[in-house]
Design goal:
By secondary structure, the chain is an alpha+beta fold. It has 25 helices and 26 strands.
């Protein structure tokens, strides 16, 4: 019986090729679009799931409260891991890492920078990264040993086996024995490193790690089986404070399952994170699928009058309603499965471009049971959803009514449902158009925000080798080149400042008030190099040693001091007094979405990590970079020349938002395309159904323009009704989205006007082809049509 159903379905499809093409094309594009989004969603949801004990793994975080605000931080004391291991019940293992480093490795005449970390040997007992060579349980054979990734091994050696046991020089200083080679980290891992060395090396160089009040490393913990995280958290609550009177932090466990998607905290509360993107794109995927299904339902019910006689004949020949429903459902499922097959081809064609867009290595694998069942499920669900109403509607026709040529009962309700579905389709599309425009405007608003410095023409690089101690000589050579306007060094990149302290005092400050202040070490010329301006006072002197006890503060800190003039005032910290010599206008650092926080600049060029160079306006960029490279290699010959542009780093801060904008634009266009396919089919059907009416109107003198307008008007009414639904919904959704931004646009009515005009134009173009074709048809042929 089923075989007969599908035979009949194939025959029906063959006789209605145009209708079939529109349905299959709409469904295929919809399924392919949704499948690509779901591949991205799957990747996000499975981050770090390659670790067998992911449910027992935690990162130890801290809450610190200052001046009524609670900050959540990932930095912890260096001694916390050992203390937890020995004193906190329920903790099975702990491990520590630093924040990572980009370091030069050399073997013979090959030198390459690689990203890596310092780690405790227990790291690989907690996290599952398989070893190709060596022992994960005992990764380091000696103090100066190193484990590297397969990829890093391939850059220096023939194979992982060839690398094992060999030596490689790190930072042009120490030879390290390769005691292990681990498999490359998965793309959906929260960790990014290609090498690791013993944490003891980092500990020996940083004595502050033994201080419970100093936070600067990352601590991870693995709980014992059946341990209660709430019980462990209760023990951690006042643990750090119990070790030091100066400590202000409260530690807590942050589960690995939340790292990727729920990493955003506000005032000490977990408020989401990337999960918002996952939900947004999942919603877009379902909207596109629903729009595609609506197309099917519309086109199927629109053809009901053509199939009314077929239903009547089948019923007269004894076919019950159940069999008719199965027949029409079989047709729907057949179309859906053809669309699934076609969608797989579309996915394979688009996957490379999609991967470039989202910067991932996603792949669809039909032999993977999950992917196969997902596509099969989408096909079945789409087929059932799209075919259920048409099947029930068509099977309800009365054969007597049909053969008498009377109006089929229910046609009016079916027409209303069709109109409702068209309205729903276009409302969804308009919401996507409005959302896309507002997302774009918000991103541009933040990117054009007054930063307090000029990010253009600024090149920066890590201070490697002897660059720091030779900075003043390097600076003079750069300035003498004629291509460089200014040069300076700093401890951190301007967009990544994160060194904070609270032990600062000044005359008139409430001693009980704790204020978190960012501190940064810089050289003379830092303000000029970044294009910052002083509100009052002076800059550091050329010879920074003369300003070793001088500081420059920003406006935010000056306001907190609540004095008419702060230049000349003293700020004390750790028993030392520092004189304020200048106040710099607030500039954006660290968090581009938040107002500037209090900041102190110290003249400490010897304790810096980055060189910033401002190139002169109008210089030839390749020539300027070549000059920079020549100077760097002259003073630092053992290190390759690497650099970045400050404006590009700034743009990278908006990668997630820009991805949202790009994907929204693409999928909004696809949603409109699918909607237009359905609108095109309905317009064709309407023109065909009203063939005789058009002929009569033309005979009676109606113009082609008048007839085309008549046929278009009904559809334009539906599009306008869709605006009434879309506008308030879009306003609400985008208003909610904008609340996450401290600096945000206000939603302008012009956005709705642009979206409305665009939707009307798209609908008109879609409908006009069929309307004009019908209006220009021969009235004699029209009146002969049955």
């Amino acid at each position: 019986m089923l075989r007969n159903y599908f035979k009949t379905a194939l025959r029906s499809l063959w006789h209605n090729k145009g209708y079939g093409f529109l349905n299959i094309a709409g469904l295929a594009v919809g399924i392919a679009s949704a499948a690509l989004i779901f591949l991205w969603v799957e990747d996000e949801l499975t981050y770090d799931h390659h670790h067998a004990d992911i449910d027992r793994i935690y990162r130890v975080m801290e809450h610190q409260s200052f001046d009524g605000i609670t900050y959540t931080m990932g930095a912890t004391p260096g001694v916390l891991a050992r203390g937890m291991q020995e004193e906190i019940l329920g903790v099975a293992l702990t491990t520590r890492t630093n924040w990572g480093a980009r370091t030069l490795f050399t073997l013979h005449d090959k030198s390459i920078f690689e990203e890596g970390i310092y780690m405790d040997s227990s790291f690989f007992k907690i996290f599952d990264f398989p070893f190709l060579q060596g022992n994960a349980a005992k990764p380091f054979s000696q103090l100066h040993s190193i484990v590297i990734s397969r990829q890093m091994a391939g850059r220096f050696f023939e194979s992982p086996q060839d690398a094992f046991g060999k030596s490689i020089k790190m930072d042009n200083e120490q030879e390290y024995v390769i005691s292990g080679v681990f498999e490359d980290l998965p793309d959906n891992s929260s960790f990014e490193f290609d090498w690791a060395v013993p944490f003891k090396l980092y500990e020996d160089k940083n004595q502050w790690l033994s201080d419970w009040a100093s936070n600067g490393i990352i601590t991870y913990a693995k709980l014992a089986e059946n341990a209660d995280p709430a019980h462990v958290n209760a023990q951690l609550l006042g643990y750090i404070k119990s070790k030091s009177d100066e400590a202000v932090a409260q530690a807590f466990l942050f589960p690995m399952t939340d790292w990727r998607l729920y990493g955003k905290f506000e005032n000490g509360k977990q408020v989401g994170g990337r999960i918002q993107f996952v939900r947004l794109f999942s919603t877009i995927a379902w909207i596109i699928l629903i729009i595609a299904c609506i197309n099917f339902m519309n086109l199927a019910t629109a053809r009901s009058e053509k199939r009314a006689r077929e239903v009547g004949v089948r019923k007269v020949l004894g076919a019950g309603r159940g069999r008719l429903v199965l027949q029409f459902m079989a047709e729907s499922l057949l179309l859906s499965f053809i669309a699934v097959v076609l969608s797989v081809g579309i996915i394979y064609l688009c996957i490379n471009g999609f991967n470039k867009l989202v910067e991932k290595e996603l792949a669809v694998n039909i032999t993977d049971p999950l992917h196969f069942l997902a596509l099969l499920g989408i096909g079945v669900v789409c087929g059932i959803i799209a075919g259920s109403y048409p099947a029930l509607y068509l099977s309800s026709f009365n054969p007597v009514t049909v053969f008498k040529g009377l109006r089929v009962k229910g046609n009016t309700s079916a027409g209303l449902i069709r109109k409702g579905l068209v309205v729903t389709q276009f409302a969804a599309s308009v919401v996507l158009i409005i959302g896309t425009i507002i997302i774009y405007e918000q991103i541009q608003h933040i990117k054009s925000r007054e930063l307090g410095y000029n990010k253009e023409q600024v090149v920066y690089m890590n201070l490697q080798g002897k660059m720091n101690e030779r900075f003043h000589v390097i600076r003079q050579e750069l300035l003498a080149s004629g291509m460089v306007a200014h040069a300076a060094v700093s401890n951190q990149r301007v967009l990544q400042m994160g060194n904070n302290g609270w032990g600062y005092e000044w005359k008139g400050k409430d001693p009980n008030q704790k204020i978190l202040i960012t501190n940064e070490n810089v050289s003379h010329g830092y303000l000029e190099t970044l294009g910052m301006s002083l509100k009052s006072g002076r800059d550091f002197k050329t010879i920074e040693a003369r300003d070793s006890t001088s500081i420059i503060i920003n406006e935010s800190l000056a306001k907190l001091m609540n004095k008419e003039e702060v230049v000349g005032e003293i700020i004390s910290s750790d028993g030392r007094d520092f004189e304020i010599i200048g106040v710099v206008h607030d500039f954006v650092y660290s968090d581009v979405y938040a107002p500037a926080a209090p900041l102190i600049l110290f003249a400490q060029p010897s304790a810096t990590n980055y060189l910033f160079v401002r190139l002169k306006e109008g210089v030839n960029m390749p020539d300027a970079l070549a000059k920079l490279e020549a100077v760097m290699k002259a003073h630092n010959p053992g290190y390759p020349f690497e650099y970045k542009f400050l404006d590009e780093e700034f743009d990278n801060l908006f990668k997630s938002e820009m991805l949202i904008g790009k994907l929204s634009r693409i999928f909004a266009l696809l949603a409109i395309f699918i909607s237009c396919l359905g609108l095109f089919g309905l317009a064709a059907y309407t023109a065909e159904r009203r063939t005789k009416e058009i002929g009569i109107r033309k005979v009676l003198g109606a113009s082609a323009v008048g007839i085309a307008s008549l046929l278009s008007l009904d559809f334009l009414k539906l599009v306008i009704v869709s605006f009434l639904l879309a506008f308030p919904l879009a306003w609400y959704l985008m208003h909610q989205w904008l609340q996450d931004f401290a600096y945000r646009i206000s939603i302008n009515w012009k956005v709705f006007l642009i979206a409305g005009v665009a939707a009307v134009l798209i609908a008109l173009i879609t409908i006009s082809f069929q309307a004009i074709r019908a209006a220009l048809s021969n009235p004699v042929k029209n009146l002969r049509t049955e």
